Amino acid sequence: MREPIHITTPWPTPEEWAKYYPISKESEKAVQALVDEFKAMHPNREDETVNSAEPEKRRKRASAA
Amino acid sequence: MPPLPDPKGVFLNIPYDQEFSSLYVAYIVGLCHLGLIPHLASELPGGERRLDRIFKLIQSCRYSIHDLSRVELSVAPTAVPRFNMPLELGMTITWQKLHPSRHNWYVWESERHRIQKSASDLDGTDANIHDGTPEGILRELSNALWHDHMPSVPKMIDNYRFVHNNLNAILLRNGTSNPYDRSAFMELCRISTALADLSRMTKPSV
């Protein structure tokens, strides 16, 4: 299997995402409503992602490949 | 010589059919959760010849994914093999051979070893096998590429399901039944990027 490629580019900012994918104001509102719905369904999602060991596991797996 | 490619850009070479739409959504969600920018030929405005526009898009992206899982005959009465994906893969391989540092391409299939029959010249290429499932797409994306901030595969699957459950509403809002239309694609990307921002690893271990 091919060794996984480590993407080292900075994570896109919301402004960058918006520049790549322009949508109407109405769609912006609809997307925001969906995000709010998602947050209500996953109240701890942001906390869950902090301090996870997942990147370290991936780094080890890639260096072992 | 065209300008350097966008290091986050990924050209998606996939079939534009209804049966593929759940895999299409999985590609979008997965790539956004890797901090990458998926691109489709259908997002390009008209004017120039389609093939020229596609080639420019390939040149502008650092990566490309070529899904050859639907190369079988179409179901139309005048069934013909589908050559678009292999054609665009050929263009990409040529571009990469001429400029190796500018592009990485990946071949994806749903069935192991089928590529040796459908495109035997690709023998020696490690295809990513997604089993024809969204979960397989997300698993293989995380096997092929990784970012310090990317969330776990189960989280990506969870987020994919949320986006896919809202696909019909997105299509309705954009006045289309075609998920590959530019407006639907843009909105799918925006919701995917918003969920990726919410789910990303905020403090990667170094």
Describe this structure in words.
- The complex is a heterodimer of chains A (65) and B (206).
- With 65 residues, chain A is mainly α.
- Chain A has a domain at 21-64.
- In chain A, 60% of the residues lie in helices and 5% in strands.
- The longest helix of chain A is centred in the middle third of the chain and has 17 residues, at 25-41.
- Chain A is flat and about 45 Å long.
- Chain A starts with a strand and ends with a helix.
- Chain B is α/β, with parallel strands linked by helices.
- Chain B has a single domain, classed as Rossmann fold, CATH 3.40.50.
- Chain B contains eight helices and six strands.
- In chain B, strands 2-1-3-4-5 form a five-stranded parallel beta sheet, sandwiched between helices.
- Chains A and B meet through strand 1, helix 1, helix 2, helix 3 and helix 4 of A and strand 6, helix 6, helix 7 and helix 8 of B.
Can you give me a brief rundown of this structure?
The complex is a heterodimer of chains A (65) and B (206). Chain A is mainly alpha-helical and 65 residues long. The mean pLDDT of chain A is 81.
Oligomer: heterodimer
Instruction: Look at the structure and give the CATH class of chain B.
Output: Alpha Beta
> What's the arrangement of strands in the largest beta sheet of chain B?
2-1-3-4-5
Q: How would you classify the helix and strand content of chain B by structural class?
A: alpha/beta
Please estimate the helix content of chain A. 55-70%
**Beta content of chain A:** under 5%
Elements of chain A, N to C (H/E): EHHHH
Radius of gyration of chain B: 17 Å
Give the N-terminus to C-terminus distance of chain B in angstroms. 37 Å
What is the strand content of chain B? Answer: 5-15%
